[in-house]
Amino acid sequence: xxxxxxxxxxxxxxxxxTIFRSVIxxxxxxxxxxxxxxxxxxxxxxxxxxxxxxxxxxxxxxxxIFIAYLLDGLLLIPLAxxxxxxxxxxxxxxVLIGVLLIMTPITYRYSRIIWxxxxxxxxxxxxxxxx
Length: 131
Fold this sequence. Notes:
By secondary structure, the protein is mainly α. Helices cover 60% and strands 0% of the residues. It contains 3 helices and no strands.
């Protein structure tokens, strides 16, 4: 009986590792091979490998905005707390704005990739035939 629990745990951990790796390297949530972005700012319309359509409907990536807010908050709130009594308010604000400007392109990309993977977990889709 404990062997089944161990196998299940290993399977879950392997799936999480695969998803984490796919998110870090910007890969398709279905096949984990195709790249999501074709350039720094633009996503592919379909996965180059398994051909699923990334944007299921108009406004599909709106949820990625909330993920970007979360990522920015996870970065900026601890930084603001750290700087609170160490520097002046003006310096604190300048540092936070500078970090936000630098991180925005990164959080833009990763928020879309994370949203694709969350959506795949919540509402799985299969690969589509190439048309």
